[in-house]
Amino acid sequence: MSFFDAMEYPYASRRMTTYARNGMVATSQPLAAQAGLDLLKKGGNAIDAAIATAACLTVVEPTSNGIGGDAFALVWVNGELHGLNASGPSPKGISIEAVKALGYEEMPTYGWIPVTVPGAPAAWAELSRRFGKLPLQEVLQPAIDYAENGFPLSPTLAHYWKLAFERFSQVGKGAEFAAWFDTFAPNGRPPKVGEIWRSPGHAETLRKIAETKGESFYSGELAEKIDAFSRQYGGFLRLHDLASYRPEWVKPISVHYRGYDVWEIPPNGQGLVALLALNILKGFTFNAKESVDTYHKQIEAIKLAFADGFRYITQEDKMSVRVADLLTEEYAAYRRTLISEEACIPEPGEPLASGTVYLAAADGEGNMVSFIQSNYMGFGSGVVVPGTGIALQNRGKNFSLDPHHANRLEPGKKSFNTIIPGFLTKNGQAVGPFGVMGGFMQPQGHVQVVMNTVDFLLNPQAALDAPRWRWIEGKTVEVEHHFPEHIALTLERKGHQIKWGMGPTGFGRGQIIWRDDQGVLIGGTDMRTDSCIAAW
User: Fold this and answer.
1) Active-site annotation holds for 505
2) What is the Cβ-side half-sphere exposure of residue 154, based on CA atoms within 13 angstroms?
3) DSSP string, 350-412
4) Contact 388, 225 (CB under 8 A)
5) CATH 3.60.20.40 domain locations along the chain
6) Per-residue pLDDT tens digits for 6-30
7) Catalytic pick from 356, 418, 453, 529?
8) Would you place residue 353 in the very low, low, confident or very high pLDDT band (cuts 50, 70, 90)?
9) For the segment 370-387, what is each residue's pLDDT rounded down to a tens digit?
10) Strand 509-515 with 521-525, pairing
11) Angle formed at CA 506 by CA 500 and CA 507, multiple of 5 degrees
12) pLDDT exceeds cutoff 90 at 274
């Protein structure tokens, strides 16, 4: 029996699974999801809907992403899966020596130093160019309208906005952070639930991106403003870094898991971690979801996968091992033998050599998109280019200043990137997009959602609603407040150090759209945020 067959026996869920035929958009903000659906109804396809939704999210959820962030996409078109890596490299003028000369022993979190080239605007333009049906100006218009006219804050959004304001009030004392407060706290405080927030500069920036198909951001007026602001405050990012940037079409990577193929973007993203864990787990038999054995093996597998991920993942052509070698059956079998009845401290293996917002979109023509974009750590670096609404990411934070580390800082290099879109196929046909956002929770969320779907036959909404866990470090594992207490206690007796999470913070926020054999779209959206599925 497949999980499609099991859907008539729904697992208890706080929300109902959504069914539709002509189109569906699932994301963390209702206004953004509706914007994508509106584009579908105007004759656009799933790619147009995804771009419109992504651009809207930079306005209606700036706590998690922005125009100055990165993006990745998995796009199913005409029976083929395409991967787009729109993460940006470090500036060509930066180096370990240059950063250490400024007094840092590790990459800072805020300010100009961790800012890398933003890839999101290039992702929108490239997706539109290759697969879109509608003009980019029409596709970005809903986002422009929300930025210009304003929108009322939803509860979860207001919560994270308030947390960010409190954080930047402590760490954003310098003059380079003033534009963040001007843009996101114009009244000297964060906006409240239901309060209207506007960003005219954001609207004008989106308009210029739309009119020039992204060129203004990378070689025109906007690029010049970014360059000037960087120079003013000692940043390394320059006009030539922006002008030379192009997103990359890449071949997605996968593992075969119990009859399904699970797909991720190859490094520099951390999707490899999810595949490593699933490759280990498929060698076990799981008889029940809510069992100590299931959770124990899941946790141990993800720990081993992260150990390899942290050791090896960086820009793919600079990795010391091949992705294919990490994903062999032989290596998975070896790593599987390291899982015992007790919690372990993970160490990386030696294979044979040779953050964020997420959205899913689908249309009635068979096109499907798994899309993720982020500024990292909420609002990112805290640097906003004055008058533009461009909040710049801090992806460079993940670089190491150890010259021997695989992910060491180098000029023009892409760092280990946390954001990952997922996709599921079976027998060469699309099942659909899925994703769970939230820093290093993401591959852990991917593993849990895939297993909830494939091993335990949960419908999309139930697969997302199920209680989650996340490995923190060492033997420490945090579990959600509705995680089964008796299982948590037994896991402690196996050596796991269990922490109880307070609320949804840290456990990711996911979306799923599956397509069944009849072409019916079946969607789930996360209860941990202000999420919504727009469908028709």
Assistant:
1) no
2) 18
3) -PPP---EEEEEEETTS-EEEEEEE-STTTTTS-EETTTTEEBP-GGGG-B--TTSTTB--TT
4) yes
5) 255-354+419-535
6) 654 444 455 689 999 999 999 999 9
7) 356
8) very low
9) 999 999 998 999 999 999
10) antiparallel
11) 80
12) yes
DSSP H or E run through 209: helix 200-212
The conformation of residue 291, written as its DSSP 8-state character, comes to S
Instruction: Check: CB of residue 282 under 8 Å from CB of residue 455.
Output: no
Write down the CATH number for the domain with range 255-354+419-535: 3.60.20.40
Could you report the per-residue pLDDT of 408-462, keeping only the tens digit for each? Answer: 999 999 999 999 999 999 999 999 999 998 889 999 999 999 999 999 999 999 9
Which residues neighbour 407 within 8 Å (Cβ) at sequence distance 6 or greater?
313, 314, 398, 399, 400, 415, 416
**Strands, DSSP E only, in 21-63?**
23-27
What distance, in Å, lies between the first and last C-alpha atoms of the chain?
28
Name the residue type at position 523. Answer: G
110: DSSP letter = S
How is residue 201 written in tokens?
A: 């500069």
Angle between helices 46-60 and 136-149 (to 10 degrees): 20
**3-class DSSP state of 129:** helix
Q: How far is CA 196 from CA 55, 60, 147, 419, in A?
A: 19, 11, 11, 29
For residue 64, what are its two tokens? 């998690």
Please answer whether residues 327 and 255 qualify as being in contact, where contact means their C-beta atoms are separated by less than 8 angstroms.
yes
Neighbours of 381 (CB within 10 A): 30
C-alpha to C-alpha distance for 529 and 438, rounded to whole angstroms: 12
| Dist. CA 342–CA 299, nearest whole Å | 11
- Look at residue 297 and give its three-state secondary structure: helix
Side-chain-side CA neighbours of 70 within 13 Å: the count stands at 33
* Cβ partners under 8 Å of residue 456, min gap 6: 286, 289
Tokens representing 388 are: 């533009």
